[in-house]
């Protein structure tokens, strides 16, 4: 994947959100399964930030594999402190 292609895609998505076409665009670009997977990933990030359940409990709650949760946990470690603070504020209403 080229960095320019990724940045152009991010810019395109940002414009869609600014123009209030996010729902239409996600329906266009993502299958039902992909949208469901995205919802699950957000739930993983939220649960990991809350810290109220361990990964095995989360696996049972969401009905997903432990590897999916581990990938989410590892990805969360790579976000900037500013992004992590934003995630906490947004997802945990802090």
UniProtKB/TrEMBL annotation:
UniProtKB keywords: Cytoplasm, DNA-binding, Repressor, Transcription, Transcription regulation
Subcellular location(s) of the protein: Cytoplasm
Record keyword Nucleotide-binding present: no
Cellular component, GO, one term: cytoplasm
Pfam families recorded: Trp_repressor
DNA-binding region: 55-78
Single annotated GO MF: DNA-binding transcription factor activity
PANTHER family (alphabetical): TRP OPERON REPRESSOR
Membership in a protein family: Belongs to the TrpR family.
Function summary: This protein is an aporepressor. When complexed with L-tryptophan it binds the operator region of the trp operon and prevents the initiation of transcription.
Protein's UniProt name: Trp operon repressor homolog
Gene behind the chain: trpR
